[in-house]
Amino acid sequence: MKKRRTMEAADSQESIEKPPPFLPPCKVCGAMATGLHFGVYTCEACKAFFRRAFLIDRKYKCTKDGDCTISSKRRGSCSACRLNKCLQLGMSKDAVRFGRYTVAQKTQTIIEVRKINGKEEILTPKPSKEGSTEQEIVMDIDKRLSQSKMEKSPSPNSSSFVSEPLPTVTSTKSEDILEPKRKIQKTSSSPVVSSSEEKELDDIVQKIIMAHERIYPWMRQFLNPEYMSERYLEVYEEYKLKNAVFGSLAPLPFEEYQRIYQQTGLDIDNRQEILQKTGNHIERGIQRYVSFIKCLPGVKEIPMTDLIKLIKAARYEFWFLGHYQKMDIKLGVIGAAGDLKLHLNDLQKLTSEDFLHAEMKLAESLKRLKLSVEEVALLRAIVFMSKDRCDLEHGEKVEQLQMKYVTCLEHTLQKFYDNPKQRLSALLDRLAPIRELTELTWKHSKTFVSDWDLDKKFPLWTELLSMDDQG
């Protein structure tokens, strides 16, 4: 009994720490509900209690008058009265699949919650920073980086941190250019560079890899196919469970959604919720992005005006190279293993379904390359130093740094692959289709900012999407 109450308390605490944005209190005990369970809105603890009552088929007896008060603090005091209340409310083992969760049902639920909370606004937008200059935005990012801690993530020394190299591919087919055989690191490098040049390249590579490992310590796990397969399933099962409870409501056309939202303030298909989660995720990502760029060898030689343009211009390619592993086209998973776990049907409420499918197809292509952490870090440095995306005052300096990073990548491949030049060609070839997707994002950025009033909610994201400085 004590163990059961401990489990219920843990379930209750979890539901309190991560409350859904639009559910009423648990009908049984009054705690925060987590969903529609057995036909009634309940918390996790009451859901688990009702499930156990049927599995065990135990006959409970009340030791008092049969009318005990059931609350979140006293719900375990009398199981008989608790079960009786569940049944009176209409909880049934046959109501696990409640069916289609209609717009009307969801609207009524949101209205109920708003009446309980006495609130007129569901979201609390962050204040915008009107009139901020580009230099002030960068300084603001620096200030945030110095004041705030990074999100909790697996430490390189923890047992969950996957530090082993990727598995060796033993096939000898010609298509192994994409999946070349990994070699044991050589004790001496190939004689293509002098010892002094080799030392310089090793030093640059080490600085880039160390910075990337420090800022993105979870990347090794994301590059592990077995680990990610489990994460894809987690997101997909969660999506299926949500559909089982609420039904698979198709996204409303944007104009219709906006009309309803402006007239009623109701987020009837979770669009604002998804935007809020996405925006929070992106703003945290921007901080890491800028932090990594500041660590690149040679970046201090680039003028601030050029650096800001590069940060804006490279945003999508840099992001994609770090997030393609979170996508699975078979299950329709867009986010996995990170803090933003979304299904294709959720994210298409904000952006084009065709674009998302193109993204996922390209992600599958990149997965076949079986990139290592070192390759991801160096490729992200390379795509950042691309002078042809925007007008730069010192484009030649940016181009020199990019070529230096490409040489560093080739130098690294020499140590690990039998066919380094083919591998380098395969890696660089994949950058072209990512650039094509970047062009599409630029076309939709301005409308996206205006459609969602992004400047009022996410100033850093809005600034990154600014096209004023693009050539």
UniProtKB/TrEMBL annotation:
Residues 146-196 are annotated as: Disordered. Belongs to the nuclear hormone receptor family. Residues 23-98 form the Nuclear receptor domain. One of its GO terms (molecular function) is nuclear receptor activity. Its main location: nucleus. Keywords: DNA-binding, Metal-binding, Nucleus, Receptor, Transcription, Transcription regulation, Zinc, Zinc-finger. It is found in: Nucleus. It comes from Potamilus streckersoni. One of its GO terms (biological process) is cell differentiation. Residues 173-182 have a biased composition (Basic and acidic residues). Gene3D superfamilies: Erythroid Transcription Factor GATA-1, subunit A (3.30.50.10), Retinoid X Receptor (1.10.565.10). Residues 200-467 form the NR LBD domain. PROSITE patterns: NR_LBD, NUCLEAR_REC_DBD_1, NUCLEAR_REC_DBD_2. Signal peptide: none annotated. It comes from the Eukaryota. One of its GO terms (cellular component) is nucleus. This is Uncharacterized protein. InterPro entries: NHR-like_dom_sf, Nucl_hrmn_rcpt_lig-bd, Nuclear_hormone_rcpt_NR1, Nuclear_hrmn_rcpt, Znf_hrmn_rcpt, Znf_NHR/GATA. Residues 153-165 have a biased composition (Low complexity).
